[in-house]
């Protein structure tokens, strides 16, 4: 699933692919915001860790979890 994160006062957004389900990501972000944590910790498909300042989150866009088809449809 593709994740796009907008950061306040930054012209670029953070994009990466992850294998985590959308519900797990939503819970991680919600828990971090509710607890007052300084950072939201997310993992991508390759095992890289992204620490995003919770106070600087503008938006988080979660892509669909469907897999893409390869080939032609007749």
Structural account:
It is a single chain. By secondary structure, the chain is α+β, with helices and mostly antiparallel strands. It has one domain (2-62). The protein has one helix and five strands, in the order ββαβββ. It has one helix at 22-35, and strands spanning 2-7, 13-17, 39-43, 49-53, 57-62. The radius of gyration is 14 Å and the shape is elongated. The protein starts with a strand and ends in a 12-residue tail after the last strand. The model has no long low-confidence stretch (mean pLDDT 87). One of its GO terms (molecular function) is ATP binding.
> How would you state the average pLDDT, rounded?
87
Physical arrangement of strands within the biggest beta sheet: 2-1-5
* Overall spatial form: elongated
Q: Can you count the helices? A: 1
Low-confidence stretches: none
Largest sheet: 3 strands, antiparallel
How far is the first residue's CA from the last residue's CA?
27 Å
What is the helical fraction, as a range of percent? 10-25%
- Tell me the radius of gyration: 14 Å
Percentage of residues in DSSP E strands: 35-45%
Give the count of structural domains. Answer: 1
- How many distinct beta strands? 5
Listing every helix as H and every strand as E from the N terminus to the C terminus, the arrangement reads EEHEEE
Protein name: ATP-binding protein
GO molecular function, one term: ATP binding
Keywords: ATP-binding, Nucleotide-binding
Organism: Naasia aerilata
């Amino acid at each position: 699933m593709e994740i796009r994160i907008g950061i306040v006062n930054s012209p670029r957004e953070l994009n990466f692919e992850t294998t985590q389900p959308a519900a797990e990501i939503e819970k991680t972000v919600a828990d971090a915001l509710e607890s007052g944590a300084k950072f939201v910790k997310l993992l991508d498909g390759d095992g890289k860790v992204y620490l995003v300042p919770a106070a600087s989150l503008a938006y988080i866009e979660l892509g669909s979890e469907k897999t893409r088809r390869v080939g032609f449809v007749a």
